[in-house]
Design goal:
By secondary structure, the protein is mainly alpha-helical. It has 19 helices and ten strands.
């Protein structure tokens, strides 16, 4: 198999770019990083991890494509009619994965993820056996990051765990330009769990260096939240519920009703944020994608039936979804349109002053997901407990509580969960994954229905994979 990972020299050269200002350059071989110097002390390891977090913020990963961009575009949340002929964006909505423009974007997701994985493996290899003060904590962060990147690539480019023996993706555990074999879905899942459990063990038993602000870095609660997410995907519902409860019992709290109006706008979601990427420049791309001065061929406009998706006809003074008010803004680009403004702080764009006490960035894990995971994990054995968990979020968002009759069958429950996640996580990259995991169809534009299938839910791997 020929895996499309970049060579050691290229990757290490790129790492040097991230570490500009650090004295790790090999004088004898210009352009390369001297790993002996880089990993000789705690600061060097910290800097190397900072490079990995910087990679996560790239547009090809969570800086756009795997948060508010490509992954939500294929989840059928937007439309664009700026041009009468097809564009790369409209072909993305139409799931034309093999189109050269769409395929190029998909390939870059794969390549950038494995670039990040290479950098992580480089850290793990060069710190193995070393005895530095905060080393074990840094290694735990690296293991969790490696697991998360592989998990999202697995969710995009392979079948679900319902097909455990199907060929999936390479799970790369060494910093080498040599190809890694494609594993089955089940084997990838076990590797992801092994990395997360190792990280959890370290963070549960080792004194941790204080990393401030804590939500910017992988910490013990982040790892438990990832374990809950991955265990639910893998069908290990008892464990998923266990880890979700651990996070719910942690230092996080759902905001109440009208506070949702100030929860996002390009910032960490205050008391609900478990982990975010600190990205002060993200607003530039968010403005380009959602709130330009006028309509363009590359901006996303909110699909016309968004009111139906939020069931606004049922709103009353005591049953009013504050997410609906917080996410969308009526505006005019030569004609009335609805813009998605959940992630955009217009005040900052005008004043260049961030709100005091808030971190600009992209939320990667928030507390509501843990309640959804708990609800789904216990539904089969305790529907009332599932209802209670689900209603924690529903009522916090200003809506009247659901009842058991709203989810009296498994099929109906799955639809309720999917609808709720779509309302909560619009713009955060979780909706497509939810519909794929639950094997549900997606409603496209103009009444088009994308039935659950491999063609819809499995992205093509780069063309030189498997050759």
């Amino acid at each position: 198999m020929k895996q499309r990972l970049l060579s050691n020299i290229f990757l290490i050269t790129m790492a040097a770019i991230y570490l500009m200002g650090c004295n790790f350059v090999d004088i004898d071989t210009p352009g390369l990083v001297d790993s002996r110097k880089m990993f000789a002390d705690e600061q060097g390891v910290d800097d190397a991890l900072t490079g990995v977090y910087a990679t996560l913020k790239k547009n090809e990963l969570y800086g756009e494509h795997l948060s508010y961009g490509f992954i939500d575009e294929i989840a059928q949340l937007y439309y664009n009619d700026y041009q009468a002929t097809p564009t790369p964006l409209t072909k993305t909505y139409d799931l034309q994965y093999l189109d050269k423009d769409v395929r190029g974007k998909i390939d870059r997701i794969w390549q950038t993820a494995y670039f990040g994985i290479y950098a992580i493996n480089n850290i793990l290899q060069h710190t193995d056996g070393k005895n530095l003060a905060a080393l074990q904590q840094y290694r735990a962060e690296a293991l969790a990051l490696r697991a998360m990147l592989h998990f999202d690539i697995l969710r995009l480019f392979a079948p679900t765990i319902a097909h455990p023996d199907a060929p999936a993706i390479p799970y790369v555990t060494s910093a080498s330009h040599l190809p890694s074999p494609r594993l089955t879905v089940a084997k990838c899942y076990r590797q992801i769990i092994a990395d997360l459990e190792a990280a959890n063990q370290i963070l549960s038993t080792t004194s941790q260096k204080k990393r401030t602000p804590t939500e910017v870095y992988i910490n013990g609660y982040t790892v438990k939240a990832l374990l809950a997410r991955v265990k639910l995907w893998g069908g290990e519902k008892e464990d998923a519920a266990k880890y979700a409860r651990m996070v719910i019992d942690g230092p996080y709290q759902l905001v109440k009703e009208e506070q949702v109006l100030q929860l996002f706008m390009g910032y960490g979601a205050t008391s609900e944020c478990i982990w975010l990427l600190n990205s002060p420049k993200a607003y530039i791309d968010i403005r380009r994608v959602f709130y330009p001065a006028r309509s363009t061929a590359t901006c996303n406009m909110v699909r016309n039936n968004y009111k139906q998706l939020f069931n606004t006809s049922a709103f009353t003074p005591i049953n009013n979804d504050y997410r609906f008010q917080a996410y969308f803004t009526q505006t005019n680009w030569g004609r009335p349109i609805v813009a998605f403004t959940k992630l955009y702080d217009k005040n900052y764009d005008e004043t260049q002053q961030w709100q005091d006490g808030r971190i600009p960035g992209i939320n990667l894990i928030r507390l509501p997901e843990m309640y959804y995971i708990l609800a789904e994990s216990v539904y089969d054995t305790d529907p009332e407990a599932a209802l209670e968990a689900l209603n924690k979020v529903v009522t916090a968002r200003g809506l009247l509580p659901l009842s058991l009759k709203d989810m009296h069958t498994l099929e109906r429950f799955h639809q309720v969960i999917a609808d709720e996640i779509r309302k909560e996580y619009w713009g955060e990259g979780q909706i497509f994954f939810t519909y794929k995991r639950l094997n549900l169809p997606m409603e496209g534009l103009n009444g088009k229905i994308f039935k659950a299938s491999d063609e819809v839910y499995i992205l093509p791997q780069p063309e030189d994979e498997g050759k």
